[in-house]
Amino acid sequence: TTRTPEFLGLGKSDSFFPASVKVGEVIIGILDTGVWPELESFNDAGLGPVPTSWKGECEVGKNFSSSSCNRKLIGARYFAKGYESAFGPIDESQESKSPKDDDGHGTHTSTTAAGSAVTGANLFGYASGTARGMAAQARVATYKVCWLGGCFGSDILAAIDKAVEDGVNVLSLSLGGSSPDYYRDNVAIGAFSAAAQGVFVSCSAGNGGPSSGSLSNVAPWITTVGAGTLDRDFPAYITLGNGKKFTGESLYSGKPLPDSLVPIVYAAHASNSTSGSSCLTGTLNPAKVAGKIVVCDRGGNSRVQKGVVVKEAGGAGMILANTETYGEEELADAHLLPAAAVGQKTGDAIKSYISSDANPTAKFSTGTTRLGVQPSPVVAAFSSRGPNLLTPHILKPDLIAPGVNILAGWTGAAGPTGLDGDKRRVAFNIISGTSMSCPHISGLAALVKAAHPDWSPAAIRSALMTTAYSTYKNGEAIQDISSGLPSTPFDIGAGHVNPGAALDPGLVYDTTTDDYFVFLCALNYTSLQIKVIAKKDFTCSASKNYKLEDLNYPSFAVPLETPSVRGGGDAAPTTVKYTRTLTNKAASSTYKVSETSKSPSVKIVVEPESLSFAEENEQKSYTVTFIASPMPSGTESFARLEWSDGKHIVGSPIAFTWT
Amino acid sequence: EKTNQKLKKKTYIIHMDRTNMPQAFDDHFQWYDSSLKSVSDSAQMLYSYSTVIHGFSTRLTVEEAELMEKREGILAVIPEAKYELH
């Protein structure tokens, strides 16, 4: 990717990061749509021999030969039996029955995680720079499990099974489905054993935001990644016939609109359909849009599809306006006609001008990349949000990483919009989604793994979370772009990843497989259900009081019951006690605790208030007692708990919900 | 419609309790295959899994899946889910 390394501080001091030869020992397995091996991003110049631990293969097939693999792309497999069982034999005129990426998504995620550095990368001149993965020297193994018709569980499970057997250290899954119970969720089941065998598993949190409770992949042994923005955008400058000026986002690079004002129409006024404002296929009246700029509302169909609808109806250009759901988030797309994306406020202003003027006109220009945009990061509107409906005692998402307007490698088999009619071919594309933020974390986890090869997946996840930042340098909370308000731990989890700090977190919340067994007992799972997940016999002791809140997780979620009090009396406060264990991963030191709570409704007592560690891997436990006043059902409140020795800050978000 | 539904095959992932493999079998694959043949003459195994789960995937009717679930050594019969790229 371009810009992300600088934004995350990766380029700053090479000495601080693990030596490239150590990073070269780490293997990232990507379950996705395959890869386009011809890209420069898979160049293996400067990489040493393939790690001796590697047992994977380079499966060949249509458009993919054994020479497609090298010391960067060290493994490539494809899994289609589940897909073909559902859809019939793959039509090789439509898609490659091989690890070849016909879509682009898998190439984008793989090169984001571990692409080799490529100078002069850009998309039509936008976002230019040196594109490199988060762990540019790590090795990539692609496991193609997603096809034109979707991604099927039996294929995904076969890929996880094979990837762990092949010897990957990190597994990256930018996909998701519904969230059934863990013992009914084949990805969660596969990820459990992968993590138990030392593999770090990161997954995208989903694009169901900003709705609350919209998360995917919430198993506590999976790292669940939300999306934020970079400090970069691609401004489009809009001028209306009344002289008013606005800014939007655009990646358009073709023949520009004339510099003179052009008639503008709101799609809702150029359609006979009740949902005409969304520019759905076949809903625009060509007589009313020919030669005009058309204002379309987001939603209903894909953003790029709207551009096709307007272009096919004879529109000269498109302004894509956010509805309330997306607020001021502006996603840039490589539309096939002059197009600009605008936030809800700008969209509403343009629509009211159109309604108030007999002959509304407008013009816009595009073509630049702007850096240093503030505030950044902000939470992407689409990024799925907590609370974790499956297990309210586990706070998800875990953290956020860049996922908006990310430039990375692309397939040579599809255009940047992915539309059939898009015949342009590019080496890099700019797209958005938690699919993009997940491989950022996968690559950064690989860096942490390279620096600390003996750390468990849970320790790596802890390092990434407890060093994440939840506020800007001015102390204000990271903004949620969908509301313009400060974000909460249900939006950002522990906060935005900070790789430099993650390499030296001081203390970690480590979690063993046995801890997860105890967690499953706390879920009241039967021994059969536990055996489905863990493939082992484990009997929960009837005499033990297993508590979900005691899973040694780097964050806190505290679901509270609103007591129903008869007679109007005052309900007594609720007291819950959580236990955590910290493992020292630095020199000897003494840490003191501090808590910040955003609301007086909960008193927080930490015991002890100071922890001293004399040697590495020494463990110390503490308890946190929450004394919560009764609050109306649906109330949410947040706090933060930090251990600091003056050099390291080990931060944890706390989320309270009253139901 | 009901008959079609009953005859319609879907992909299932069969989680097997490997620690309870009957003595009669030399290896898991044989056991898996025999289990499959016991509920369906025509079903083929799509994948067998051995690293992160123990079991296999195959296409069964609802009825065959219910029969499979009752067999000795079967931990779970989970219908395959479809996932979307994010």
Low-confidence runs of chain B: none
Q: What is the total tally of β strands of chain B?
A: 5
Q: What percent strand of chain B?
A: 25-35%
Unreliable spans of chain A:
none
Structural class of chain A: alpha/beta
As a whole number of angstroms, the C-alpha radius of gyration of chain A is: 25 Å
Largest sheet of chain B: 4 strands, antiparallel
- Name the beta content range of chain A: 25-35%
Q: Strand order within the widest sheet of chain A? A: 2-5-1-8-10-11-21
Shape of chain A: globular
Q: How far from one another are the termini of chain B?
A: 35 Å
Largest sheet of chain A: 7 strands, parallel
Helix residue percentage of chain A: 10-25%
Rg of chain B, alpha carbons: 13 Å
Which two chains have the most extensive interface, and how many residues on each? A-B, 56 and 26 residues
Average pLDDT number of chain B: 92
Quaternary:
heterodimer
Given helix and strand content, the structural type of chain B is alpha+beta
Order of helices and strands of chain B: HEHEEHEE
Topology, element by element:
The complex is a heterodimer of chains A (659) and B (86).
Chain A: H1 4-7, H2 20-23, E1 27-32, E2 73-78, H3 81-87, H4 105-114, E3 118-123, E4 126-131, E5 139-144, E6 146-147, E7 150-152, H5 153-166, E8 170-173, E9 175-176, H6 186-196, E10 200-204, E11 223-228, E12 232-233, E13 235-240, E14 245-249, E15 262-266, H7 286-289, E16 293-297, H8 303-312, E17 317-321, E18 339-342, H9 344-356, E19 361-365, E20 370-371, E21 399-402, E22 406-409, E23 428-431, H10 434-451, H11 457-466, E24 479-480, E25 485-486, H12 489-492, H13 499-502, E26 507-508, H14 513-522, H15 527-534, E27 556-560, E28 574-584, E29 589-597, E30 602-607, E31 610-613, E32 619-628, E33 636-644, E34 649-658
Parallel strand pairs in A: 1-5, 1-8, 2-5, 8-10, 10-11, 11-21, 15-16, 16-17, 17-18, 27-34
Antiparallel strand pairs in A: 3-4, 6-7, 12-20, 13-14, 13-19, 15-19, 22-23, 24-25, 26-28, 28-32, 29-31, 29-33, 30-32, 33-34
Helix pairs in contact in A: 4-10, 5-6, 10-11
Chain B: H1 2-7, E1 9-16, H2 28-39, E2 45-49, E3 55-61, H3 62-69, E4 74-79, E5 82-85
Antiparallel strand pairs in B: 1-3, 1-4, 2-3
Helix pairs in contact in B: 2-3
